[in-house]
Amino acid sequence: MSEQSVATRLEKLTAIKGMNDVLPPDSAAVEWLEAKVRALMACYAYRNIRTPIVERTPLFIRGLGQVTDIVEKEMYSFEDSLNGDLLTLRPEATAGVVRAVVEHSMLYDGGKRLYYIGPMFRHERPQRGRYRQFDQIGAEALGFSGAEVDAELILLAVALWKDLGLTDVRLELNSLGQPQERLAHRQALIDHFERYADVLDEDAKRRLYSNPLRILDTKNPAMQTVVESAPRPLDYLGEASLAHFNTLKTILDANGVAYIVNPRLVRGMDYYNLTVFEFTTDRLGSQGTVCAGGRYDYLIEQLGGKPAPAVGWALGVDRVLELIREQGLDSVVPPLDAYAIVPDVEALPLVLQTLQTLRTAGVSVQMHTSSGDGMGSMKSQFKRADGSGARFALVFGADEIAKNLVIVKSLRDGSGAQVSQSLTDVLGWSSTLQSQT
After folding, report:
1. For residue range 331-363, what is the model confidence (pLDDT) as tens digits?
2. Domain that holds residue 413
3. Statement to judge: residues 167 and 265 lie in one domain
4. Mean pLDDT of 65-90
5. Does 129 score more than 80 pLDDT?
6. pLDDT of residue 378
7. How many CB atoms lie within 10 A of CB 335?
8. Same domain, yes or no, for 277 and 418?
């Protein structure tokens, strides 16, 4: 049997469901978003941190909570075949950031403002805006206890929405209080739900005594009346916790940031205290949360560090880009500036020299390449130029080159206008090619 016939029988390999390839032009949109985030983070004095994709499993069990959905159902965990360590692909980044801050004693000289960009992994049913591998962007302020830092982080997110052109996003706030206040609320929840045990579904019954706060997250329509009548965390806040929440609201009011106080907002991780918040939209169906976070003042100590406060948020890259598309905003990726049309192979050395000069000046330009039988017809090259989305064609015709010129032809304004430019002064006219978007 020939090698060719064996090859034809090989099964086609595909990506794992819910772990998607990001292809052009979508990859360019991701890069565009990341560039916006990096520029904005620099304005707010947040510095980038990069932590491993794989962490020890106990980090997430201790950090997120044993009875959270993530730990119970969604983590990709495995045993290291070399030493038997239990390892997990990170389902979220905050625990890893805190681990790094503790391990490297980063708070010895004061608080730190950090941000991250990278992939997370959760073993769940893939659906629109919710995948098994997904990119998150997050901001974490560690070592700061004041409500003004909660407000700063929220203002940072609001500034990002404005920079991206997003308008259909609303802010929801709540306060969970401090541990003793949470304990009092927890007992009140147990007492409340015990009275409606016949209405609780199996998941709620399982969590009633281990983590009753999670029952408030239920999407079961049959339980909504019981959940709506449940005790609220805000009713158990002490004077200091209430003052923290009121300070946050006052700062947001002063900055013209609209918000809704949602007493049922609790978030999915056990490490939160005091402020929790979400940015949501109605445009993405059931996956309407695009950014969420809150204060986690006890997580640093819980992961082995000296007690220190912290607050942060994370957003889903897929959901933000989906929302941009849903709102019908113009393409977020700047168009290609130019496409080089080369009628003759002999012109290639001069063409490449010219294109390198243009690229050095910041012009994005794609060159038509040769095939086994030459450069191809002018008609086919112009077709490729048009398909590339380039704003201009650069035509390196033999007659023009003999005169030390190149033709610059407009492809997008409908005029088809063209001018000749000097090949000895490429930098002099390069700026006319660059996109201003």
Report:
1. 667 789 999 999 888 889 999 999 999 999 999
2. 338-433
3. yes
4. 87
5. no
6. 86
7. 14
8. no
Kindly state whether residue 346 falls inside one of the protein's structural domains. yes
**Numbered residues of the known binding site for L-histidine:** 92-94, 122, 136, 140, 267, 271-272
Q: Which of 295, 326, 357 is the last residue of a domain?
A: 326
Structural domain contains residue 208: no
pLDDT (tens digit, 9 = 90+) per residue, 216-239?
A: 878 889 899 999 999 998 999 999
pTM of the model as a whole = 0.86
Confidence of residue 425 (pLDDT cuts 50, 70, 90): very high
> From the annotation, which residues make up the binding site?
92-94, 122, 136, 140, 267, 271-272
pLDDT at residue 405, rounded to an integer: 94
Regarding whether 312 and 389 lie in a shared domain, the answer is no
In tens, the pLDDT along 286-338 reads 778 999 999 999 999 999 999 999 999 999 999 999 999 888 876 667 789 99
